[in-house]
Amino acid sequence: MITVPQAFLEDTDTLKILRDGLNCMIDKKAKAPNPNNDRYITAHALTIVQSGSLSITKNDGYSETVNQGEMVFLPKGLYMVSDIIPKNKPFRATVYFFEEKLIHNFINSFEYLIKNRPKIEKFWIVSQMNSVKVFNDHLLELYGNHNPANNRLTKNKLQELLHLVATSDEGPTFLGLLNHLKNRGKVNISQFMEQNFDKPLNIEDYANLTGRSPSTFYRDFKRKFGVSPQKWLIQKRMEKAKVHLSSNHEKTVTEVAFNSGYENISHFIKTFKKHFGISPKQYQMRVRESMSV
Fold first, then answer.
1. What is the pLDDT of residues 41-67, one digit of tens each?
2. Whole-prediction pTM value?
3. Could you tell me which residues come within 8 angstroms of residue 214 by beta carbon, excluding any fewer than 6 positions away?
4. The 23-30 sheet, strands edge to edge
5. What is the CA radius of gyration of the chain?
6. Domain architecture of the chain: domains with CATH
7. Strand 2-4 relative to strand 38-41, pairing
């Protein structure tokens, strides 16, 4: 799983136009699809596709494609994101990331316009407005060759972009979306954890994704499941790993680890051995031997 914008900010080949914490503007280019298309988006993102297409799938399985010349707003959360590379040129998109506080401060100034706006259940995908295109092209031309990114201008420019979208013809639905983000409540903790325990996330990530502080998440979790989040996660991940090792003999230990929520293979092997008293490879071999008798 790739965590963004952190992965973009750490990648030396990705151009950072503006940056202030997780508030940032990224010029993303890709010549080949990334096979790891699981994304954990930790800040709300507005993506403008300039070349190629973008396939996005929500955690509930709903999928959409964003084409060249379109833009999409993704609230922070879990997604499957795939770059669709066009012929003879790289995929390219400009991605703006917004921290929660910046969105809240912005929406407060438009509160009188957003009462009774309907909640958007799917993706907010629209054609790029001309005003946004001029704004985006200007920033790329002005700051595209500067490194490091210009921190002092970041928040002002992100606010300016939000204002351009909010005052366009698509503004009412966009403001409704932002207002929903500001006021959304806690996610059902049991449903979310059952669906996502096998993601390589830590307790703080799960707290963030369910709309809770780490301390509130721990308290709500223990009230619901009767054990600590860490103990429950280990149990669920080990059970899934054991099923994979038993039912699919062609899978490597590395593949089983990834499918069970572990990106650190040595940590997975150590945890499995501590849990079952035997290494994953030994367990897999024992199952094979028992089936061949």
1. 999 999 999 999 999 999 888 999 999
2. 0.86
3. 203, 204, 207
4. 15-20, 23-30, 91-98, 44-51, 70-74, 124-127
5. 22
6. 2-183 (2.60.120.10), 186-293 (1.10.10.60)
7. parallel
